[in-house]
Protein 1
Amino acid sequence: MDATTAPHRIPPEMPQYGEANHIFEMMQNMLEQLLIYRPEEPIPFMIDHLQQNNDNVPKIVVLGPPAAGKTTIAIWLCKHLNSNLLTTENLIAKEFSSLAAGARGHYQKAKSVPGTLLVRLIQERLREDDCVKRGWILDGIPETREQALTIQTLGIIPRHIIVLSAPDTVLIERNLGKRIDPQTGEIYHTTFDWPPESEIQNRLVVPTGILELETAQKLLEYHRNIVRILPLYPKILKVISADQPCVDVFYQALTYVQTNHRSNAPFTPRVLLCGPVGSGKSLQAALLAQKYRLVNVCCGQLLKEAVADKSAYGKVIQPFFEKEMAVPDNIVMKVLCQRLNQPDCIQKGWVLHGFPRDLDQARLLDRADHRPNRVFFLNVPLDSIIERVTLRRTDPVTGERYNARLLAGA
Ligand SMILES: Nc1nc2c(ncn2[C@@H]2O[C@H](COP(=O)(O)OP(=O)(O)OP(=O)(O)O)[C@@H](O)[C@H]2O)c(=O)[nH]1
Ligand SMILES: Nc1ncnc2c1ncn2[C@@H]1O[C@H](COP(=O)(O)OP(=O)(O)O)[C@@H](O)[C@H]1O
């Protein structure tokens, strides 16, 4: 094959650098902001965007019916993630803001704020330094599809959306026990979350809007709106049952908001299967290689092939095989790297098993820039291992491995 038609050899360090530094996601976020804001001067805008370096700060929305625990969970997430809580109440309470003053007027009259005004308040708040640097958590906003669409067009794109859910009857009952600490804004409950300190107990107040009929009306409004909002966020939302202890809801929410979504970045799987002898590494490797068109790299097999081919490395390895001694790590690494550096492994990706077998070998693999991006440990009880290995049969012609019990049953 002449040089002009040979596949371009992509050094493995290129895709690995892109993955390790999330270059694709960084460029994708910047492109998104450019298209949303369409700045007159794109280059200064991009420089400013990159200097903000806030692609990975929390950008969370907590939705749910009344009494589901939105505010409770949002407050706990804010504390844990050191981020900023945005609620209708604290947005309109903002001082020295004509927008907020206008919104307070509406809220005092109708106990609600017009959607367009609320979204402008959010936009104003998110431009502030603390939200840019430490992210934000929106509690119960957007309330309608129209608000969600306006928020999106303003470039306010959440990274995670938590949707709490619980039966209406549970929520109506639960809301009756809601109590608020007027000093700290903390939320408690007469049954599920009563403060131990008598000083706090004595100053708790009963919030408005928690009576059965009021909660039932809010539930109707919520159910009417939520079914029109959720389709706008197909890939970034998680529904969590709020009909369980607060702490359990919180940890499920925290786990979710701390995961990164699968990005559209080009991804070359470099899979490592670890596990004791007989745990099924070879079998799973063959299945993964077939399903995802990966190169199946069995370290033991590579060494045997080198010896069988009488290659330069094979001649060095053979004496170790004959004496049934472990082949030195540096020689194993040379054979392995020779295989992993081949175009098929770089372009298709690989599933490696039988190496590393210890920490020194793992460090050698890491230093050789063949870092796996998916690692699985096959954990099998000892008695199963013993049964499998004793029942293992290998086809001397193909090298295929079988289980005598499964063969007998075949
Ligand atoms: N029941 C059962 N048997 C399995 C499974 N995976 C593998 N085996 C059998 O267990 C034996 C060992 O499987 P292998 O895939 O060779 O295990 P391995 O981890 O590659 O073993 P080594 O290469 O020696 O470390 C074979 O006889 C397989 O047929 C499994 O998931 N369930
Ligand atoms: N998972 C839960 N189990 C029991 N009570 C809860 C739970 N989540 C919240 N609460 C209580 O229910 C009441 C309403 O919680 P709140 O966070 O204000 O809900 P929302 O903001 O969704 O209206 C509060 O008294 C709170 O302590």
Protein 2
Amino acid sequence: MKMLETRNLTVGYGNKEVVREMNIEVLKGQILCILGPNGSGKSTILKSLSKLLNPLKGDIYIKGEKLSDIKGTSLSKTLAVVLTERLNVGFLTSFDIVAMGRYPHTGILGRLTKSDEKKIWECLGMINGENIATRYYNELSDGEKQKVLLARALAQEPEIIILDEPTTHLDVKHKLEVMSILKKLSKEKGITVILSLHDIDIALKSCDRVMLVKKGAIVDFGFPEEVGSNKSISDLYDIKDAGFNAFLGTIELSNQSKPSVFVIGGGGHGVPIYRLLTKKGIGVNTGIIHKNDVDYEIAITMGLDIQSETPFSEIKDATLEKAKSMIDKVDTVIDSGCPLGNINRKNIELLAYALESGKKVLSIRDKDELQRCLAMNYLNLKLCDSVSEIMDNLDIGGEGSKW
Ligand SMILES: Nc1ncnc2c1ncn2[C@@H]1O[C@H](COP(=O)(O)OP(=O)(O)OP(=O)(O)O)[C@@H](O)[C@H]1O
């Protein structure tokens, strides 16, 4: 069932058009998240959908009825809004704040019946907030306040809840708690949720639809799994010195330095080393990694030069030769200790090549395993127990430097 629809909607202030020509549909029980850079118009859209701001052009429909035709109490029973404004409410408790949400049902005198009180406790329960019911709202933490405001919205018994950045200022536990409450409301009670977020990862993993807003227009709308690609998210925020990996949901700093270190990666062993070297401004290239390896995902997002192999296939001689030529161009090789199964055993040949070429080699591999693989002892090989020991032995930042 269509809960909210916009037709050629343009929102803004006076003669300033902020977002133009919006045509979207949100169904019952869906969670729609608006993503976009600061100032792109997320709050302006949400205020317009909540009837707090008149559209400049076009129309908004709630359950097929024009929003402009829906009056006060009737709208409050359908739609509840949680905005970012901070409330200063003196000596009101959490219970009192949630009780304010009952006004569409209590009438002008606002007298609470037993059933209103029961509803308020139920809403406090939904946000796991019974224990803060008697505490003063002004004395609550940001996370607790956010949950109380959500409970106040729930007390209206709405079919749609609109929230502007409900996870801002919250730690990761509270962000996830708020999102999990919203998900529960949408799935179990069929409430439609429309919100804006700055947490891309949480948005892509928790919402049913996402809308990307930039420079006065909706640049994409649809399933997060399709809309939230590496490129679309990087473009949305004009990310230049980093990359977004939609598959893993991480942002990785780009490594733009000339490579001086080659990392033999694989099985996720390369990731902490890529990240540490990137943080220190040291250029890296890497191999030989299968294209379905997590090291490949991170390395490609960082923009590293990679020697890679087709998933599940044995490393080819040609790939090995190309990796050797990458090693020729660096001073140091780090053996991350990647597992050496049948399909990637050639990485040990690569390690032997690095040693025989006189490169400085730092390895986190088990000593016994190395002795089984390498024919002789090499003076240019240093065994390390951890990534930090690798970094200690990298000789960066000058003599005596502990980077
Ligand atoms: N009351 C107002 N009158 C005029 N312009 C406004 C008003 N409020 C916001 N704007 C402008 O509208 C544009 C969109 O602002 P809006 O707050 O909707 O963006 P946003 O995407 O929510 O940003 P943020 O992520 O920083 O909260 C901005 O250029 C802003 O300066």
